[in-house]
From TrEMBL:
Residues covered by the TLC domain: 76-295
Keywords: Membrane, Transmembrane, Transmembrane helix
Membrane topology note: Multi-pass membrane protein
UniProt-recorded name of the protein: TLC domain
Organism: Seminavis robusta
Membrane-crossing residue ranges in chain numbering: 33-51, 81-102, 178-200, 220-242, 263-282
Transmembrane helix as UniProt keyword: yes
Compartment list: Membrane
UniProt-listed PROSITE patterns: TLC
Superkingdom, taxonomy of origin: Eukaryota
Region Disordered, residue ranges: 1-23
Length: 298
């Protein structure tokens, strides 16, 4: 007697399969974020307390009288100097890494698929690093700014909050790595020049010194780079972001790749508008400054 065994094969529909849980990039980068935050705080504290009771910083950087009150004797405004140096370190990392990844190595264009899904959900280590550094900086900047009258304006505190949310969301949900390179890295390239401009504003250099020459060159370089990255390309890249989000939501690919995370895309789009308008507001201030310079030369 023969026994025939029949095997039943069950076919699974791939369309109904739930993709594996995306690991939290924020948890992964947590130790690095704590380290960046600690380094910025250490640099700030060393400069602030090191020159707190002096009348200058490093013996040559004397604050403009308008930033000293009559009760401050001596007045070094080491808080302003420490802030500019600490900020400059973080901005340099973001600006240089973003510029390199976008223009030099071009990995943001070659390592990620040139599709809406690739730009929104693809993984790029450089972008993850940028989000971690920028989050540390924005979070640190918010609290340090509360201690410095010149920096604790509602506008700047709001900017730091919005930028921190963007960085956190990108890290936590591993999203927008293509756009992270631009918004969290490339746009900071113009801020490299602004750091030196502000330093010269708070601590006016002696005429015909090296610092005077460098700060003078930073003016036009800042205006040009701001126009390119924070006005022209900002809105061009933002338009692509909106188009990509519309595509993945309407086609359903966002639900397949990040189930239940469409709200994250909406947060990015919601914050993209006021942050973009803020760039135009700052651009208006730059244009006014240029007009005043040209009028003075005339």
């Amino acid at each position: 007697m023969s026994v025939t065994t029949t095997k039943t094969v069950t076919k699974h529909s791939h369309s109904n399969e739930v993709p594996p849980q995306i690991p939290s990039g924020f948890s992964k980068m947590g130790p690095s974020i704590a380290g960046y935050f600690g380094c910025l705080t250490a640099v700030y504290a060393a400069i602030y307390f090191g020159y707190l009771d002096s009348d200058s910083v490093l013996g040559s950087f004397k604050p403009s009288p308008e930033y000293c009150t009559s009760s401050e004797t001596p007045c070094s405004r080491s808080d302003l100097f420490a802030f500019q140096i600490s900020s400059g370190i973080a901005i340099s990392f973001c600006g240089v890494l973003g510029f390199y990844t976008w223009h030099v190595s071009k990995r943001v264009h070659t390592a990620l698929p040139a599709t809406p899904e690739g730009r929104l959900f693809g993984y790029l280590p450089e972008s993850e690093q940028l989000a971690a550094i920028n989050f540390s900086f924005q979070f640190w900047d918010f609290f340090i700014s509360l201690l410095i009258p010149e920096h604790r304006t509602p506008l700047m505190l709001g900017h730091h909050t919005a930028a921190s949310v963007v960085c956190f969301m990108s890290l936590q949900h591993q999203m927008l790595h293509y756009y992270g390179v631009f918004f969290l890295g490339v746009t900071e390239f113009s801020s490299l020049f602004l750091v030196l401009i502000d330093l010269a504003k708070f601590f006016p250099p002696e005429p015909e010194t090296t610092f005077d020459t460098i700060s003078g060159l930073c003016g036009p370089l800042f205006a040009a780079s701001f126009t390119v990255y924070r006005v022209v390309l900002w809105w061009k890249v933002s338009l692509l972001l909106w188009q990509d989000c519309y595509h993945v939501v309407t086609k359903g690919s966002s639900d397949a790749l990040r189930p239940g995370k469409n709200y994250v895309l909406y947060i990015f789009l919601f914050l993209n508008v006021p942050l973009g308008l803020l760039q135009l507001y700052w651009f208006g201030i730059i244009l006014d400054a240029v007009r005043n310079i040209l009028a003075g030369d005339a």
